[in-house]
Design goal:
By secondary structure, the protein is α/β, with parallel strands linked by helices. It is built from 5 helices and 8 strands, in the order ββααααβαβββββ. β4 and β5 form a beta hairpin.
Length: about 160
């Protein structure tokens, strides 16, 4: 599978998670609806791959249950045991999580800045990201015959 690190910045902070390459396009499609928070972004992405979105939400809930900005030792333990390509979803709350959130894995690292309305492809070896495109809806992790289409509003920028 072509794994990519996806890091999302909103006014409340930053989250980071891994996903298959197709999620790059899926989150871009969700951005076409102008989300302002990570939760909105995930809500808008859910129709395209609800299982993936649920995995991210569950991972963030587990992170929140065991970590705080004052004590992130639980995540630090996980980060020392797992390779960067296997880390669960996490919030950026300290220097280690910031460093990991900016570390490419597999086919790359794409940063979605919801406040600035920018999608920054720090490393993208998966495929060209377009302002207007379509993708395949997935169920149970498998592609279906159904497609979704999107067009980013003019105030969104895609950076190389």
């Amino acid at each position: 599978m072509s794994t990519v690190r996806l890091t999302v910045v909103d006014r409340h902070g930053t989250v980071s998670f891994l996903g298959p390459g197709h999620v790059i396009k899926m989150l871009t499609a969700a951005c076409s609806r102008n989300p302002t928070t990570v939760n909105e972004l995930l809500d808008y992405a859910a129709p395209y791959d609800s299982d993936f979105v649920e995995t991210v939400r569950t991972g963030l809930a587990i992170f929140d249950e065991h970590n705080t900005p004052e004590n992130s030792s639980a995540f630090h333990s996980v980060a020392t045991m797992l390779s960067p390509e296997r880390l669960p979803p996490f919030r950026v709350i300290d220097e280690l999580t910031r460093t990991l959130s900016l570390q490419p894995v597999g086919v790359g690292l794409v940063l979605y800045n919801l406040e600035a309305r920018r999608i920054v492809q720090l490393v993208n070896r998966y495929g060209e990201l377009l302002r207007q495109d379509r993708g395949r809806i997935r169920r149970g992790g498998e592609p279906t015959r159904f497609l979704y289409a999107y067009r980013l509003p003019d105030d969104w920028r895609i950076l190389p």
